[in-house]
Specification:
single chain, alpha/beta, 2 domains, 9-stranded mixed sheet, 17 helices, 25 strands, globular
Length: 500
């Protein structure tokens, strides 16, 4: 099934329903939205784009981003969304690897690429009109819909092949496990549309909900709270760092989050202290999902009633978990041989099901190492309790082995964040001749607090085993992050090697 059919159906059933907003101004109904999609599709066909071709989308968050998605899908081609904040070298590499020759994007950004072999078209919302609709071409569930390049924090990014069937199952699993969407709801694109926020457009199109793009095109706390108050019933996808920023801003600005309905957080570890503080301030609006590009948004879920629960005996343990398996997948904790671990035993998180990718674009070797006997080897280390709740400890590459003992950085980070002087923290390992590795903590201090390593060390001694505590504490003004808000531990390790 072609994903664009869902937009066509909504436009036919509800042509006059408000669809697209730029800020708080409605700029198009679902009929307008669909006709713009058809107009861009006709243009792409005239340009020679055909079924299976990769079409890059390289622009900041804007209404044209959504039009591009459904236009490309409508003719059976493959969308290649590229984060507008990537370095031009990264963009060029992705375009070359994907064998992409056509780009929909911002003219200024595209000019910086200086790629004569790439055809660039800059779609403008007010120019994308058509007199009649063009039905989407037939696609199977196995047909490629989205080529998603991983963030590339270690080495070159890999192109995850995401099919129409994967996204369809992700969407249906969202309704079954994550949240419901109503026509009166508004999804707010404050996170990059090239990532999870863009994927989550699908279920809002199905429900005939509204789509709002901030005028800034990005994440601005003041703008977000203003839009929530004016548009109401806001749905948002946010990285954990964004949730923390919203909480800090709301507390300083005396805002309670009027207009927010659901904030789905994913994309990195949400520390216990941060989510407790967020729920205390905003109430039960948060839902956690755990996924990867290789299984987009669809591995586990911790629904809002469990995120907000404070009465159950194990509420803290549940809140530190990433929840339980979503409906469309199986999840287990396995060892190196793929055997299933017992409840509570640490191992690699493995998943299989209809949301798991068929493989990496043009990379058979990487695919064979990642998909084993039908199971996706996530590279994440975790445990599963007797009730099926999965707790993720760390990426396997981030685990520290010191004196033969395994140390999970997230556990140390959670403890340090309990101290009132710590705003952000990232723990990494550094080579040590005697112990193999030693634990090092990079600390971003809360404003007004002095950096006192001996105080932090005493705090760790009081809460965790001595061998787990950092051997060194380093004050840093800001933690390095990629364009999706993930902390770049590789950069921190490089700083240690350079004795910075």
């Amino acid at each position: 099934m072609n994903l664009a059919i869902w937009l066509e159906r909504t436009a036919l059933k509800h042509p006059n329903r408000e669809a697209l907003f730029l800020g708080h101004e409605c700029i198009g109904t679902y009929k307008d939205f669909w006709l713009a999609v058809c107009a861009l599709r006709v243009h792409l066909e005239k340009e020679g784009i055909k079924r299976g071709d990769r079409v890059a989308v390289y622009m900041p968050n804007c209404p044209e981003f959504l039009v591009a998605f459904y236009s490309v899908w409508s003719l059976g081609a493959v969308i290649l969304p590229i984060n507008s904040k990537l370095h031009t070298r990264e963009v060029k590499w992705i375009l070359g690897n994907a064998e992409c020759t056509y780009l929909l994007g911002d003219a200024v950004l595209a000019s910086e690429l200086n790629q004569p072999d790439i055809t660039v078209f800059s779609p403008k919302w007010d120019h994308l009109t058509a007199n009649s609709s063009v039905s989407p071409v037939l696609c199977s569930s196995d047909d490629l819909a989205w080529l998603f390049y991983t963030s590339g924090t270690t080495g070159k990014p890999k192109g995850v092949m995401i099919t129409h069937g994967m996204i369809k199952n992700m969407s249906l699993s969202y309704f079954a496990d994550v949240d419901q969407v109503h026509p009166s709801d508004t999804t707010l694109y404050a996170a990059p549309m090239s990532h999870g926020a863009g994927l989550y457009s699908i279920m809002h199109v199905q429900a005939g909900a509204r789509h709002a793009i901030p005028v800034s095109g990005g994440f601005d706390e003041d703008e977000i709270f203003d839009l929530a108050e004016k548009l109401q019933n806001i749905h948002m996808f946010a990285a954990p760092t964004m949730v923390k920023r919203l909480t800090n801003f709301a507390k300083k600005s005396n805002k309670r989050g009027n207009g927010f309905r659901t904030v789905v957080y994913a994309g990195g570890p949400m520390y216990l202290s941060d989510i407790i503080e967020a729920v205390e301030h905003f109430g039960p609006i948060f839902v956690q999902v755990y996924g990867q590009g290789e299984c987009p948004m669809g591995i586990t879920v911790l629904p809002r009633y469990e995120v907000a629960d404070r009465k159950s005996k194990k509420w803290k343990e549940r809140l530190q978990s990433v929840g339980y398996a979503q409906s469309a997948v199986e999840v287990k904790i396995g060892n190196k041989n793929g055997a299933t671990n017992k409840p509570g035993e640490t191992g690699e998180i493995m998943v299989r099901g209809d949301i798991v990718m068929p493989g990496y674009w043009g990379n058979i070797d990487a695919t064979s190492k990642t998909i084993i006997d039908g199971w996706l080897m996530t590279g994440d280390i975790g445990t599963m309790d007797e009730h099926g709740y999965v707790t993720m400890h760390d990426r396997s590459k981030d685990m520290i082995i010191s004196g033969g003992s395994n140390i999970y950085p997230r556990e140390v980070e959670e403890i340090l964040l309990l101290h009132k002087s710590v705003s952000e923290v990232s723990v990494v390992g550094r080579e040590n001749e005697e112990w193999g590795e030693e634990v090092v903590a990079f600390i971003v201090m809360e404003k007004g607090h002095e950096f006192l390593p001996e105080t932090l060390d005493q705090h760790c001694i009081e809460h965790i085993a001595r061998f787990k505590r950092p051997k060194h504490y380093i004050s840093i003004a800001e933690l390095p992050k990629n364009n999706y808000g993930k902390i770049l531990k590789t950069t921190l390790r490089e700083k240690l090697k350079q004795n910075i």
